[in-house]
UniProtKB/TrEMBL annotation:
Pfam families: PGK (PF00162). InterPro entries: Phosphoglycerate_kinase, Phosphoglycerate_kinase_CS, Phosphoglycerate_kinase_N, Phosphoglycerate_kinase_sf. It is an enzyme of class 2 (transferase). Belongs to the phosphoglycerate kinase family. The gene is pgk. The keyword ATP-binding applies. It comes from the Bacteria. The keyword Transferase applies. This is Phosphoglycerate kinase. It is found in: Cytoplasm. GO terms for biological process: gluconeogenesis; glycolytic process. Its EC number is 2.7.2.3. It catalyses: (2R)-3-phosphoglycerate + ATP = (2R)-3-phospho-glyceroyl phosphate + ADP.
């Protein structure tokens, strides 16, 4: 039986939440924020439960270093901050000391978003091919995992399947989407 986010204890927990913020962009601006809006009920619920919320998503396909500039989630984090009415800390990395430190310093009720998961595809398609090491690493950043990215749930990527396989028994659930 699948667990829903309401089945998990989120209080003071580091909650890894896979969201679908693959929004259309033009000249660095979001042209349709609907996917961000759709994720708000799950995000708000987690925050009401005093979660330390860690959000991540992909944005488009990243095939070259040059793609990074137009595929960053920074503008999405800023839009989410505006919609939530609270700060969303954006970390421009997908792994490493800066990300780990920011997560470890999160307080209950705070939100952090890290960079486009597909930036990992520049190094051997680690995200898209569900790299075991990457899934294990990301799972190690949190206490529980919530998949609120219904539109990508069918993909065997490190940011959904890889984390779910490594987060620990009973510590993953689906969001409201």
């Amino acid at each position: 039986m699948k667990k829903n986010i309401t089945d998990l204890d989120l209080n003071n927990k580091k909650v890894l939440m896979r969201v679908d913020f693959n929004v259309p962009m033009k000249d660095g601006k979001i042209t349709d924020e609907n996917r961000i809006i759709q994720a708000l009920p799950t995000i708000k619920y987690a925050l009401e439960q005093n979660a330390k919320l860690i959000l991540f998503s992909h944005l488009g396909k990243v095939k070259t270093e040059e793609d990074k500039a137009s595929k960053s989630l920074k503008a999405v984090a800023e839009k989410l901050s505006e919609l939530l009415g609270k700060e969303v800390t954006f970390i421009s990395e997908t792994r490493g000391e800066k990300l780990e430190s920011a997560i470890n310093n999160l307080k209950s009720g705070e939100v952090l978003m890290f960079e486009n998961t597909r930036f990992e595809d520049l190094d051997g398609k680690k995200e898209s091919k569900n790299d075991a090491e990457l899934g294990k690493y990301w799972a190690g950043l949190g206490d529980v995992f919530v998949n609120d990215a219904f539109g990508t749930a069918h993909r065997a990527h490190a940011s959904n399947v890889g984390i779910a396989e490594n987060i620990g028994n009973g510590n993953s659930a689906v969001g409201f989407l």
